[in-house]
Design goal:
The structure is a single chain. The longest helix has 25 residues, at 133-157. This protein is mostly helical and 235 residues long. The relative contact order is 0.12. Helix 6 (106-117) runs antiparallel to helix 7 (124-131) and helix 7 (124-131) crosses helix 8. It has 12 helices and no strands. It has helices at 5-8, 27-30, 41-45, 51-66, 83-97, 106-117, 124-131, 133-157, 166-179, 183-193, 196-205, 215-234. 61% of the residues lie in helices and 0% in strands.
Length: 235
Amino acid sequence: MEPTAEETWDPQVARWRDPEGDYVLPRALRSLPQPWDECDWPRIAELPRTDERLAEARRVVTVLLEDPELVPNVPQPPSPGLLWQVWEEFHQAVAKSMPRTSQVTWSGVDDLVHAWRDRPHLYSLPLHVVRHAEAAMLAMIPSLRDDIADSAFRWLALDPDPGRFADWAVGLAERCVTEDIGADPAIELLGAMGSPEARAALERLSVKPGGPASWENAEAAQSTVFDLGNEGTSL
């Protein structure tokens, strides 16, 4: 059987070196406070909603939006894109082995690669990761960015009165939807805040085609605007 385009694809990603050590992930990710640096949702959900923690969540999301190292140019695998699933499996193995972002090192990645190479009956796409681990790790950076933003907005939405931080959270949520990081919980947070500013942000995001958000996110924003309208009608 002829190998597929994905199996023979060369992503041409060279191993990068961090001046501060054997680190794989950008400094912005590995310097996040706990438990944000582990994407540990059970711990994040239990964080007290104090002013200090709210300010911390604000800083986390701001860093995710503003650091250009968190938006690398990840090569896109050829169709049908099955390699993304294998990359995600490798990311899960990395997170299990090195749960904190500051613990992700090239030596640790190499240990995982050796473990994968020793798997019996290793089929072609995991073998691609063994040969091109750098591409898989490059793809992990935006994936972590999305997961951490997702957790931040989910945590904010659990607040009994999310409207109290609308003055700064509306702008961050709107930007995240536009950049498609943590988009679903960001839209949910805008709906939960219910302020005129949040509603205006949702209406801007719901424009399609040609609006600031992707078609899928615009659909979600439009649905939230509709639900808010129905709530107002039922009062």
